[in-house]
Amino acid sequence: MRRVAKGVLYKLSLVAGVATLLFYAVDLMPGDAPCFGPGMTREVCAQIATNRGLDESVHARYATWVVGALTGDFGDSHRQSRPVLDLIGELLPNTLLLSGLALVLAFGLGILFGVIQATRPGWVDGALGTVLLFFYSMPAFWLALMLILVLSQGLGLFPAAGVTSVDYDALSGPGRLLDRLHHLVLPVAALTLVSMGGVARYTRDSMLEVLGLDYIRAARARGLSERTVVYRHGLRSALLPIVTQLGLSLPFLFSGAVLVEAVFGWPGMGRLMYDSVAARDMPVIMGTGLMFAVIVVLSNALADALYALADPRVRYERD
Amino acid sequence: MSVTDRGTARDRRGGPHGTPRWAVALIPGLGDLRSGRPLTGWALLGTWAFLLFVLLTRSGRVAAALSGEVSGRGAALALVTGLALVWSLALYSSGRSGARTVRMSVPWRGLARRFAANRGAVLGAFLLMGLGWVAVLAPILAPADPLATGPLTDRLQGPSAAHLLGTDEINRDVLSRLLHGARVSLGIAFLAVALASTLGTLLGAAAGYLGGWLDRALMAVVDTVLSVPRLVLLIVLVGAVGRPSLLLLVLVLGLTQWPQTARLIRAEALSVRDREFVRAAEALGFSRTRVLFRHVIPNSLGPVIVAAALGVGNTIILEAGLSFLGVGVQPPHPSWGVMIARGREHIHTAWWLTTFAGLAIVLTVIAANMVGDGLRQGLDPRAGDDR
Amino acid sequence: MTAEGTAAATPLVSVESLTLRAGRDPAAPVLVDRVSLEIAAGESVGLVGESGCGKTLTVLAMAGLLPADVSKAAESRVLFRGRPIEACEPSPLGREIGFVFQDPAGSINPVLRVGHQIAEVVRTLKGTSRSDAHARSLELLAEVGIADPAAKARRFPGELSGGERQRVGVALALAGDPALLIADEPTTGVDMIVQEQLLTLIEGLRERRGMALVLVSHDLAVVAEVCDRVEVVYAGEIIERGAVDRVLTDPRHPYTQGLIRCLPGRAGHGVRVAAIPGAVPVPGAWPPGCRFRPRCAHAHDRCQASPGLLLLPDARAARCWLVNEGGAP
Amino acid sequence: MTRRLRNPLSAAPTLLLLAACADEPREPVGATAAFCQDALARVEQYMATVPSSPSDSHGGTVVVGATAELDGGMMGLTTSDYNAHQHQVFLNLMTLVRYDDRLEPEPYLADSWEWSGDGTELTFHLRDDVYWHDGTPTTAPDVEFTYLRATDPATTFANPTYFEAYEGVEVLDDFTVRFHVRPHAQPLDTWRAVPIMPAHLLSEVPAEELRDHPYGTVCPVGNGPFRFSSHRPSESWTFAANPAFPQALGGRPSVDRYVYRIVPDPSTLLTELLNEDVDVYVSMRPDQAGTIETSGRARLLNFPARDYTFIAWNSSRPAFADPALRRALTMALDRQGMVDGLLGGRGAVANSGVPPVHWAFDPDNASALPYDPARAAGMLSSLGWEDRDGDGVREDAEGQRLSFALKFNPESELRQTLAELSQAQFASVGVEAIPTGVEFSQFLRDILGSDRNYDAFLLTYSTDFRVDDRDLFHSGSSDAGYAWSRTRNPGIDRLIDTLQTIVDQEEALPVWREYQAAVLEEQPFSYLFYPDRIVGLSARVQDVTMDARGEWVAVRDWTIPRDRRKYATPGRP
């Protein structure tokens, strides 16, 4: 019980640390919310700052923010004049959909290709490895541009931007699903292709290591089929480090999503965060930053939980 | 294991028989090739051939640069010293009888051998080395000034004999910008990774070896930094200083990378600190700092080296991403990321602007990854035997 | 009955001129050199020798389990019931040949429950239903002497003691009701009491099930306790063979004699194999002629030529020039 | 691998936190949410009662693509965003007057207006058939409310200079409102620019909360030809035709639905246009126009506007104090080349902040300060700037190098290109310009802050119809935010003062010419060019006219022909 409490406390303190780091780092950023245009005066800018409480000291503002955040009030966006939680609620599902799907595909396909590489040494391993490394070495945004140029503009197969079509609301149920999937193809492909290689390489190495272990040989000696040996015994153990990798790669996927979202006009958290930093929209920066931190901390916890689930040794060696 | 060791031993016995001494002295790397060190041999030979080729084909430019008439004195000096160094090395080794024996401790010797046996890794290493030289020699190699503009009415020319990779939106030579871009992109990546590795190694090893509050505090910092998506952190940090200079980019890329390294090396240090030689050193009464630097760090470096090689690739991509968002390298420095970002305006009509810069990134990152893979397998004997 | 008759006529396993090399290269060092032996149904044979002499590789070859980096010479043949083992369909592994590995901890998957692993093998080999396989796994656990099999079946290997783990290893090997059990140093790493229990278990199982048994050990005493016949291996070759009691009482090869002198009770406590000076030469560094020559007290000029395996009465054989001269020195 | 063991259960409480975060915003929180729910419900209620009998020519959905959000949304009292303002005055809200295509005021929400004899009282008579989208009539108190809030400093109205000459307001009756003013140039321009806001919705909102009030982005209830239907942040705004829009003003718009889509990457947006997933690409990059021309999959529209691009010189830095030097620097730049090359001819060389669409624009200045590097070099030499140490950069007698940082915000590709181009062209006359990209927020602080942290910078500025350079060049405001050159020229001061008080155009024209010549002489900025606004149009959309008034000036008339309609519209068979 104490261990659990300590774990939760540590994670909460991480989130608090991120919030503090972010608040003071953003405060260090010179420049104010852009107030600019013909006739816009310094007085107006100063008044805007006063209205938003920006003329207080940074510590006072931080305290105000913390008190608000603890009571579930993350403030209102300056650029979008609506509650931050409202904004996040609109955009987070988009990001989760894109990054989540890409994550699932990257890991699913990556593990599959990694196993194929590990079990088929020779040219299959080499060829797959080369192709995967090629995509892995690409900047995601560059691949995104190329995908748009070829598959959207050139062949007209997929829309280049957006989450849904303009007439989404008028579509039937299955039509809506198809429309969403149609819009997901390119961004998910861009994210998946660049991250798949890492997973595959990891899986391959892990598989090779596991497949060389005694108990795999022993399993074969007991007459188990190659399929059972590779997938049930080999992959199951090889997955352990990959599960850890899964937890650690979540922040990367969100980072990658910032750029992919920008290219595909995908209204998500990455873009929201980027735009807010440019506009010094502090409530949104803090809200999204905190959201990211929570997701990362959660995914680490999830990775640990999965790890424990996959590896009984963690469970019984705990005491 | 013992079997393959013997095989190498047999190779090593062979000497530069049959190759005239003068050839060995004149052509760097030949001696190494003949005495069964293909890695060193080809590296020396390749470098020598490349530098000589550049010197011969661009002698006018080199001379002008040396005399200060045109820019690129540093590059010209590097070219001449590099050539002199390679040659003197050849002369030196040919002046001695038999093969040189490089004294390496056992694990590193194993690494070198397994690395050399990995064709991909060797190819990657040569590619990186070549790119490194291209970056250093960019002012001499580039056919034109990367900042010099041509007439605006004639801009965005496609690849041609005059401009091998075409010209950009203000009629600058893309090839020249690409070559100079190598300086910026590689320079930033290597410096940032060096910074991160140094910092991460020191802090991570100290945390792992010394433990206690230092460990807890450092790991809390590490976990915190790793909880923020790196790109977001980078945007904020670059923004916090306002004007993204090259130095700043190196700093923020390095300072956001070290936690990963620290985490890796801490895990290593944790296992090393219980090994006999560390305990023995402590028992002898050596100071903890001395034990840290003499025993713990050298024996934990393996994963750091791998992470550094892979980190170079990641950093190049990250820098490109930052530049793509407009918060990275600032003009007129032509980094590859900047070239893609700027070229995307013309992606529909002038494909050469984004394509070549993108390929340069892909090539470099592939090379860095292959080297990283080679190192990883080289450091792990089990993995090395799978190939 | 006819089947049994055939089985009696053809040995269960016969190994003919087995030569193994480290690597594919025909010039690669030889690890096992022209070993031939036969195992009849129901027979129990011990393979004895110091570590590194090729015992384990020989039995792995018998089961068709050679590691990828070891290659078998073209003329070598391993026959199971008279047919090349590679050609047997389905593979006799598990079904006809059960293998108990040296390291029980390493040879059982640490992340799967014990009962699940046994049931999995039962299901694969016997094609039974899930519940039947589970019931059978409990029976097997009971058979190998694990108390409270139902509870232990739910445990992970890491939660069992070393002895229990090895018993599970035996149960896994028995899951297919094999005709031959190969046990490779099954008692390594366990204490004397557990070793005794395991040996008793294996001996009892063999008798009850009428299986043939190949027991690999560096300890002649272990083999003497369980086996009918013994094959002494040194530097990749068989150097002596015969019924256990005959070999023990009348060893013909100086190496066997050395091994016997090391047995506890004969040379007193605390004395180890060090009674034979020197160490087994590594593969590739075997001396020409008799390979035991450098360590042999009776070495002589003629020992520079290999003596060959000399057949003796009572199905015995030894590889020593001294044998021809009418007995042990 | 060594790793710390973490209890998997420790994730549970944090998981709840996430669940809470993800669920909560589905229901917008607090009183503001209730405000918007009520307002939108009343709009639906009212719209159900309006008879809509669309003819055959009506219908279809037009999709406009742009790279940025409508910052501030439809809150007309605070926005400074160009696109947002256009949507306010042409789609969702109404202004008292609007400009016709000759930029002369014409009636809009105000049916007519009159001046008192001494020019100090301006009386508007409002139309009586304009209703807010929730059915409330638009009346004089709405105008009064708009004026009072806009002039209240707490509201932070974006352009207080609009009301510099205004002294008070009085409501005469429901549809008559009178303003008290001091005589000044173009007095009606204010009411072309400031949309009238709904008093019945917003009068309870404290002035300081208006800027961040959700009215602007969640429930903008307007009275214009389009009514708000939804806003997905960073993604799209959707408006529907307002069937209750007065017939006298043209009635309901031609299209059923108008969608503003945000696609931040310009090249992706271009692809969307070429694929007809976007019909109107506004503020297209000049470089993309060429793609449109060669593709044949879309057409181009470009028109001169009120923007100009310039390099501002900080004359308080000694090197830039001399107007002659600034003129020499201008002559080192190939401005015609920029227009022809970078803009593809879509634009004109600039010589002042008076755009060609302005009635007082002086076309005779077009050939002033021509591109002449040799003459520029000569002028620099004669001013004492010579390359004395042979490093390619000129120095003055004290050895001070003619070298400066040229700041710009790298978010703009065009200005990035311009910075690099200027560097090259300055270098050819021995002047070292160091392009220095500065992130926009920081850039604004540098150029607007009182420390004037720049030597020179590049900017594109959008002037008002009522050109007033007081805050740019008048000595009286040289400490204020926009006095970038910090030049003090009594002649220019006098001209600016005079111009803002002359009501009659005939009378003002010669003064305007004199002013433009004075600016040319003083050269506080190196004016580069007036870029045209460029718009890409898909084959789907017809009847599009655009001019200096803005892209959306005639959005009511845009048509999607019947055979080109591809989107199903909710609620229409």
Helix content of chain A: over 70%
Mean pLDDT of chain B: 79
Class based on secondary structure composition and strand pairing of chain B: mainly alpha
Q: What is the alpha-carbon Rg of chain A in Å?
A: 24 Å
Name the chain pair whose interface involves the most residues: A-D, 94 and 90 residues
Task: Determine the strand fraction of chain B and express it as a percent band.
Answer: under 5%
Could you list the spans of chain A in which at least 5 consecutive residues all have pLDDT below 50?
none
- Average pLDDT rating of chain A: 83
Name of the CATH class of the largest domain in chain A: Mainly Alpha
Proper CATH architecture of the largest domain in chain A: Orthogonal Bundle
**Head-to-tail CA distance between termini of chain A:** 13 Å
Count of β-strands of chain A: 0
Total number of strands of chain B: 0
Q: What is the number of independent domains of chain A? A: 2
Question: Sheet bearing the most strands of chain B, described?
Answer: none
Tally of alpha and pi helices of chain A: 12
Defining key terms:
heterotetramer; A: 319 residues; mainly alpha; MetI-like fold; 2 domains; B: globular
Explain this structure.
The complex is a heterotetramer of chains A (319), B (387), C (329) and D (573). With 319 residues, chain A is mostly helical. In chain A, helix 5 (123-136) packs across helix 7. Chain A has 12 helices and no strands. Chain C has an 8-stranded mixed sheet with strand order 7-8-9-3-10-11-13-12, with helices on both faces. In chain C, strands 1, 2, 4, 5 and 6 form a 5-stranded antiparallel sheet that branches. Chain C is globular. The longest helix of chain C is centred in the middle third of the chain and has 18 residues, at 192-209. Chain C has a single domain, classed as Rossmann fold (3-Layer(aba) Sandwich), CATH 3.40.50. Chain C is of the alpha/beta class and 329 residues long. Chain D has a 7-stranded mixed sheet with strand order 8-9-10-1-11-19-12, with helices on one face. Chain D has a 6-stranded mixed sheet with strand order 14-18-13-17-15-16, sandwiched between helices. In chain D, helix 9 packs antiparallel against helix 11 (373-382) and helix 15 runs antiparallel to helix 16 (505-522). In chain D, 29% of the residues lie in helices and 18% in strands. By secondary structure, chain D is of the alpha+beta class. The model of chain D is unreliable at 1-29 (pLDDT under 50). The chains are: A mainly alpha (319), B mainly alpha (387), C alpha/beta (329), D alpha+beta (573). Chains in contact: A-B, A-C, A-D, B-C, B-D. At the A-D interface, helix 1, helix 2, helix 4, helix 6 and helix 9 of A face helix 1, strand 10, helix 7 and helix 13 of D.
